[in-house]
Amino acid sequence: MYDELRSFMSADQYATCCDLALHSEEKRFFNDALGKLCTELVRMPITYEQDGAGMNAIAHLHYFNHNSDAWITELDVLPEQRQAFGLISLGGMPPELGYIDLVDLLKNDFALDLYWKPKRLIRIREEIDQQKQTLKWSQALIPKTAQLRTGLFFEKNLKSVSSGSFRLCKHLPEFENSS
User: Rounded to an integer, what distance in angstroms lies between the CA atom of residue 116 and that of residue 86?
Assistant: First the structure.
């Protein structure tokens, strides 16, 4: 079942997705998502097919792990090569274009994004820049002394009525928000 995906997912992700596609209440979603991924793999450009497109190249696959992402634009022609070309950002560092070893991604617990819809690299870069601006803005809300003294970071406040609001994580009692 979905054997085409086996070499593009970790063994754990592949087994879990196949199990969910067979036995879960959401099996329709998983069958649709896995079927779309199989179709996308067949349609994906091979190495150099988007050469010269630069940031207008289309990322067909997205992998993620914690604060690292890889957007794949082309797959290598040779199946044993197991590399791709695309944009990668590791540990929140600025993204770079280059060759990406898919085996290394999977060894380092990167997951294939089941919700991904192909988009141009320029749009991805714009989204990254927008996220950085949002983070800078949110950090400006805390006095600098609080940032330095406690090493605070933000998390989404799921209880908040207004979307996009943040609350401080509870590191020191004097900085807790009362809800």
Answer: 15
Place of tokens 């749009």: 123
- pTM for this entry: 0.72
Please give the chain's pLDDT, 179 residues, in tens. Answer: 788 888 899 999 999 999 999 999 999 999 999 999 999 988 899 888 898 898 999 999 999 998 899 999 999 867 677 899 999 999 888 899 999 999 999 999 999 999 999 999 999 999 988 887 777 666 666 555 554 444 444 443 333 333 333 333 333 333 334 44
Count CA atoms within 13 Å of residue 94 on its CB side: 2
Name the residue among 42, 55, 129, 131 with its Cα closest to residue 86: 55
